[in-house]
Amino acid sequence: MSAPLLDVQNLAVRFPTRTGTVEAVRGVSFTLGRERLGIVGESGSGKSQTGRAILGLTAPSAQVTADRLRFDGQDLLTISNAERRRLRGKRIAMVLQDPKYSLDPVMSIGRQIVETLRTHERVSRSEARKRALAMLEAVQIRDPERVFDLYPHEVSGGMGQRAMIAMMLIAGPELLIADEPTSALDVTVQLEILAILDSLVRDKGMGLIFVSHDLRLVSSFCDRVLVMYAGRVVEELAAKDLSQAQHPYTQGLLNCMPKIGASRHPLPVLERQAEWAR
């Protein structure tokens, strides 16, 4: 059996504050092959911080520890900053949730995509532009020549998100961490973006960590699902079996979703239990 692409064991992320230490991630463990792994949970459950810790994007004040945090055999806890910079964007990439805060407001969209590519590959400006335009077209931007020269504030949230996805995919990463990558997109574009991500996993053998609040989307798109609550994983199961989840927190999340043809007014409220966070 081949070694996993990503191996995470007992990952913890802590933030010292004036009133004590906040444990954002507590003892998270999982492995990832060349597959689609969904991470679901409420806001504040630790989903995004798990992804940021893998990529080394946590705040400088954060304390990140793990028994093992390895990507393709490389220890992510001990590599130098220079090695991490070479890794980030080329072999591991992350699509952040809100393009308004992720894209550089004083650089055109095309220039940012070209810069990403030329940071990791020796290509001419003309070749980089050609590949950037092709990637913008691949994420269903109708007029890539026009969008290439626009600034982030000149495009809609959905188009900005697609530009961010194009920038993260341009260098052909082996692992993509997608933090709510389709939240700003309409349903038809959402399906097109998911098809692109699916083809990368299937055809190019990329590993994908898909962070989302949308349980229905994760159950239909991913291979496996991790359910997080209060910084830790409370359940792991095959995506197709999500409706048969055993943990009361997962069952509560599923029960809170509206159902077509059923009387759901008012919607049930998730009643949390203290032992879930232990």
Automatic annotation (TrEMBL):
Residue ranges annotated for the ABC transporter domain, each copy included: 6-255
GO molecular function, one term: ATP binding
CDD domains referenced in this protein's UniProt entry, alphabetically: ABC_NikE_OppD_transporters
Major location category of this protein: membrane
Keywords: ATP-binding, Cell membrane, Membrane, Nucleotide-binding, Transport
Recorded topology in the membrane: Peripheral membrane protein
The family this protein is said to belong to: Belongs to the ABC transporter superfamily.
Name recorded for this polypeptide: ABC transporter ATP-binding protein
Localization in the cell: Cell inner membrane
PROSITE patterns the UniProt entry points to: ABC_TRANSPORTER_2
